[in-house]
Amino acid sequence: MTHFSSVIPLEIIPSDRAAGAEIRGVNLLEPLSPDVQEQIVQALANYGAIFFRGQSLNEEQQLTFTRAFGDTMGHPLAKAEHMSFGEGSQSDVYYLKDEPDLTYIGKNKLKGAVMWHTDLQYMPEPQVYSLLYGIEIPSKGGDTLFSNLVAAYEALDESLKQRIEHLQCVNWILRTMPPVVHPLVRIHPVSGRKALYVSPTCSRSIVDMPPGQSKSLLRYLMRHVTLPRFVWRHVWQAGDLLMWDNRHTLHCRTAFDLCERRMMRRTQTAGEPVIPA
């Protein structure tokens, strides 16, 4: 069902899945009013990920929109590993570029799949919002999938909720960066709802739990959060601006043909402390 704001003509069209909504009626090239900004934040808290179709944004315009929701930041892995993320003209903008590999023309090879993760879970203050703008889109694949971590938590049986509610998890990604400990269940500061905070990419072990039990519990939770009933797929179009709340969702990317180009521009807001359940 389509919902209309009682304050401004903001149209929110939820997907038919556990996450995701399209937002219409917002001119992203103009400064956001407090009412519009508040409703976008609420939509992110409700649906985890939102998108705006048919946009035409340059770097500065995307940064301006991003800054309406918090301070922006670059990618910490670029500094820690001296990696290039296709930086834009400003350090807070970078590009995800997948160039065609001519050696595979005619072979229909697939690549580009990215595992389930939530952005910067390996940092002491993980990232809040991520924004991705579609510049060049392959004809098939390269979709972004989102899992609703709030819905996944709420679907657990009560005994398991009680078992995990106050557990902590070690999160780690690179040897050059120290591991961090975050609660396994967190509170979303906007909705007040509880969400699982676990991912196949970063969640390594449960604090003070025997290794076998820790591995078993994490494996179960990782399978649970990626069940199809919690997942929404965003099929990209050029000019899409996709925005998601990392406190609410996991995401991953599907594979696409090596012979095609995929290019996205990314911006992100700074992190904040995780609120334990």
From TrEMBL:
Entry EC no(s): 1.14.11.-
Name the domain of life.
Bacteria
Sorted UniProt keywords: Dioxygenase, Iron, Metal-binding, Oxidoreductase
All residue ranges annotated as the TauD/TfdA-like domain in the record: 14-267
- Is Nucleotide-binding one of the keywords? no
Give GO MF terms, alphabetically.
dioxygenase activity
Pfam families per the record?
A: TauD
The keyword Iron is assigned to this record: yes
* InterPro entries linked to this entry: AtsK-like, TauD-like_sf, TauD/TfdA-like
Q: Which family does it belong to?
A: Belongs to the TfdA dioxygenase family.
- The name this protein carries in UniProt is TauD/TfdA family dioxygenase
Per the UniProt record, the source organism is Geitlerinema calcuttense NRMC-F 0142
